[in-house]
Design brief:
The protein has 839 residues and is mainly β. Helices cover 2% and strands 44% of the residues. The strands form 11 sheets. Strands 11, 12, 13, 14, 15, 16, 17, 18 and 19 form a 9-stranded antiparallel beta sheet that branches. A hairpin with a 2-residue loop joins strand 35 and strand 36. The longest helix has 10 residues. It starts with 12 loop residues before the first helix and ends with a strand.
Length: 839
């Protein structure tokens, strides 16, 4: 535990002298109680340089601090407290060490939060104490239309007097969470949640402490926060932590407290005082009714603040609480607001299952919706769902607005379902448009994968707890998943990333494969091993569309940290889809381990390259880094990982040729593989596709490709933009049956090389002719004329809304004009991008 930083406090020296003079018979020591959270409103430091990345005082982690100008804070949305909020871009943590807690006591962690209204990603926000997850807010949505930040209060009981409070974000794509006005306050069971009840969310406010925004409270007139013992709070001992609220002149603070039970009695307790020499008038209201008022005199010295408890009966499920000061030129102090009584018991959250699905274009996934029976015991409920991007996934039976509604009848069944249909590659996190007031703890995410094999590296969902038995996302059957911690993965080096599938005993693991070209030659590749335990034996058969492709008998453990076994099997499908199966046949207690499953189209006679299109690795989370873990088939150094083409952040331009994924080499990095099966003295052609990231300043993306330490090509790479990746056809003569293939990135500065679709064909293979030219010109009527050679009849015009966007055949019907195909397009409306793609 790091030592807690010393807090700076301002003391009124004159008031202290008067206090000492009063203490003639005894020594009085004034020692303010330290607040739990330092810099709770993120006001104490700010990097003026746009976009304001930087460290955050008293906190570890985070990305920086924004004010109302953003860009991560949403313009037009009021900041909850003062002028700044912290932001966390992408997946990360924001933490602070706390002390002074009472073990076993209940505390509230309170904060306000939002998400940046930008950039297409999604973000979850977790609250942790000493690495124990206390709360998770799934898929934080940006607030709009001038509405306030969302509020959260998280209860917990620490088992130690100190620990680390952590806010953790889990992002998919480019997404940002914002946090402000963080407080920690001790409250026992039976307390109704009041926002910022001890006025600690603002921290130490500069100058007089006057605020225009006080977290959780709506203020009128002149109001603010002072440190107890300073400013207007110049006498008395405040009951809770460091800060108190002050009301100066004709002013008030108010908030609406929810989750009450109509007809129940509640007790509102608060501490109050006056500035030295002042005689303010306190008025307390519940709704419009005055429940207490008093002319207040200062308690003086170090005497405790006065406290008052008033009772009232709730007339609704919420109640407004107002503290007002009604005299001119008078100052009232308020602290430690509590509300005792019965809170409405929160209903269980809405249940959605599965929370994560991985399907291919054209496939469907049923999402089961479970509404708490407690809700249906009270009333009907209608829930509404929508796809956030219908170009990726649609809801079957949706209305014209793309929404599906499920109506649950009072007293009826509490389980229904809707169906999602995949359209094109991407991630769609299903929006719960109307949750009928229920909390959405975990929503449903549909990952549409156009790779032939989904969840190919078994990383798309975490390994289940315990020994790892459980369902495997996108697969049917099998037994479960293991990391290197075992117990089934008890030997060998995991070939790809961090997890493997295991099949214990005689079982089958299967997946439906779609999108194949009948009659074409394909490679099925996978890596395998056996558990080093228990005395049994196991055979493994790979099967497609009911036909056995290969049987591997009596698999033995590779042992220690040795490499898994690798298998490459050729097959020619008779139709576009079929069931891929891995069937284990065990004698006794035996287990087979499986990883890095992929299918690629390769012509007969090509030299085997392991994981040649990087589809065996799946889609890593975050920005896609894999190091220091392995990528199947390749030896890598430097910064490396996998991105989905067009999704980025490294694959921020261009269209890769084969399935979903490409390898990126960032900075000085290498990728190499020992190729076997060559014939010495014969010629071969190395074919690969490549690109460069469109990012990161001056300099060049330079690389060298070599075979058997002989450089075949050295060149600089420029990003291709909206076009297909470039390809190279390099001829070499094998010197022996084996040769090391190596790509070496040697950029000038922070640049990234992108690689895909690596092949080695026998003989000299000539590169295809240059791409078909696509011409676009503006006509006299301001329309666009798009044209390309009529000889290219096998090419299709595609369009997208963004340069890296979802490309699909354009709806326009080509016309023939001379030796050209032409399409006319409007220049009005949003921007559109065009390209030709061979059909």
């Amino acid at each position: 535990m790091k030592p807690r930083p010393i807090q700076k406090r301002r003391f009124n020296f004159a008031a202290l002298c008067r206090l000492l003079a009063l203490a003639a018979a005894a020594t009085v020591i004034v020692q303010p109680q330290a607040g739990f959270i330092l810099n709770p409103s993120f006001e104490s430091n700010y990097n003026d340089t746009w976009p304001h990345y930087g460290p955050i005082d008293s906190w570890a982690g985070g990305s920086g601090v924004n004010d109302t100008s953003g860009p991560f804070h949403n313009s037009g949305t009021p900041i909850p407290d003062q002028t700044r909020a912290a932001f966390m871009q992408g997946s990360g943590k924001l933490s602070q060490d706390l002390s002074g807690l009472t073990p076993g006591k209940q505390y509230w962690i309170q904060f306000f939060y939002d998400a940046r209204g930008c950039c297409g990603g999604t973000i979850d926000l977790k609250t942790k104490f000493n690495d124990v997850e206390l709360d998770k807010i799934a898929n934080v949505k940006p607030v709009t239309g001038g509405k306030p930040y969302n509020f959260r209060s998280v209860s917990f009981k620490p088992d130690t007097d100190a620990g680390t409070l952590t806010f953790e974000t889990v992002a998919s794509g480019d997404a940002t969470a914002l946090v402000d006005a963080v407080t920690l306050v001790q409250r026992d069971e039976g307390n109704v949640i009041v926002m910022n009840p001890s006025f600690e969310a603002s921290g130490d406010v500069a100058d007089t402490g006057v605020l225009t925004d006080l977290a959780g409270w709506n203020g009128t007139g002149v109001f603010g926060v002072n440190v107890s013992g300073a400013g207007f709070a110049n006498n008395g001992a405040a009951p809770s932590q460091d800060h108190v609220a002050f009301l100066q002149g004709d002013s008030s603070i108010a908030q609406t407290v929810p989750n009450l039970s109509a007809g129940k009695t509640y007790q509102l307790t608060f501490a109050y005082n006056a500035s030295t020499g002042k005689n303010p008038h306190l008025q307390v209201k519940i709704g419009d009714k005055i429940v207490f008022e008093e002319d207040v005199t200062a308690v003086g010295g170090a005497a405790p603040y006065k406290t008052k408890t008033v009772s009232f009966t709730a007339t609704d499920i919420s109640a407004g609480v107002t503290f007002a000061q009604t005299k001119a030129d008078q100052t009232l102090l308020i602290d430690d607001v509590t509300l005792l009584g019965e809170s409405q018991k929160p209903l269980p959250p809405l249940g959605l299952s599965p929370n994560l699905a991985e399907i291919g274009p054209g496939q469907t996934q049923a999402i089961q919706v479970t509404v708490p029976a407690e809700l249906l015991a009270i009333r009907d409920a209608t829930l509404t769902f929508a796809s956030p991007n219908q170009a990726i996934a649609t809801l079957v039976g949706a209305d014209t607005n793309g929404m599906v509604s499920l109506h649950f009848t009072k007293g009826g069944t509490n389980v229904q379902s809707f169906t999602v249909q995949a359209v094109a590659r991407g991630v769609a996190r299903i929006d719960v448009v109307d949750s009928a007031g229920l909390t959405v703890a975990d929503d449903a995410t549909v990952n549409v994968v156009s790779s032939f094999v989904r969840n190919s590296s078994f990383e798309s969902s975490p390994a289940p707890g315990g020994i790892g038995t459980g369902e495997i996302l996108a697969w049917t059957g099998g037994t479960g998943l293991n990391t290197a911690a075992g117990p089934f993965q008890d030997n060998g080096l995991i070939p790809d990333r961090q997890q493997v599938a295991f099949i214990q005993g005689s079982k089958t693991l299967s997946q439906q494969i779609t999108g194949l070209a009948p009659g074409k030659n394909y490679w099925l590749q996978f890596q395998f091993n056996a558990r080093n335990c228990c005395g049994g034996t196991v055979d493994l058969t790979a099967r497609f569309d009911g036909k056995d492709l290969v049987t591997i008998p009596a698999i033995t453990a590779v042992g220690d940290q040795n490499s898994y076994n690798f298998q490459n099997v050729e097959f020619t499908p008779a139709k576009s889809s079929g069931l891929l199966e891995f069937s284990a046949k065990a004698t006794g207690d035996a287990t087979v381990l499986l990883d890095a499953v992929s299918i690629v189209q390769r012509d007969a006679g090509e030299i085997v390259v392991r994981n040649p299109s990087f589809e065996a690795t799946g889609s890593p989370s975050g920005v896609g880094y894999v190091q220091p873990n392995l990528i199947s088939g390749w030896d890598l150094t430097g910064g490396y990982g996998i991105n989905i083409t067009g999704v980025g952040p490294f694959t921020d331009n261009g269209a890769a040729p084969d399935q979903d994924r490409v390898l990126f080499l960032q900075g000085k990095a290498t990728a190499s593989q020992l190729i076997s099966g060559l014939t010495a003295g014969k010629k071969y052609t190395l074919i690969y596709s490549f690109n460069a990231r469109n990012c990161c300043g001056g300099g060049t993306t330079h690389y060298i490709v070599s075979v058997a330490d002989q450089a075949l090509l050295e060149e600089d790479v420029q990003p291709v933009g909206a076009n297909d990746y470039m390809s190279r056809y390099l001829v070499f003569t094998a010197q022996s049956p084996e040769a090391l293939l190596k790509f070496e990135g040697m950029p000038d500065g922070d640049h990234t090389l992108l690689l895909d679709n690596i092949r080695i064909a026998p003989g000299e293979v000539k590169a295809p002719p240059p791409a078909v030219p696509l011409a676009i010109s503006v006509q006299a009527d301001k329309s666009l004329l798009i044209s390309w050679p009529a000889a290219a009849a096998d090419f299709v015009l595609e369009s997208a809304d963004t340069v890296t966007g979802q490309w699909r055949p354009d709806n326009s019907v080509p016309q023939t004009q001379g030796d050209q195909f032409t399409v006319t397009a409007s220049t009005t409306g949003k921007a559109k991008f065009y390209r030709l793609r061979k059909g």
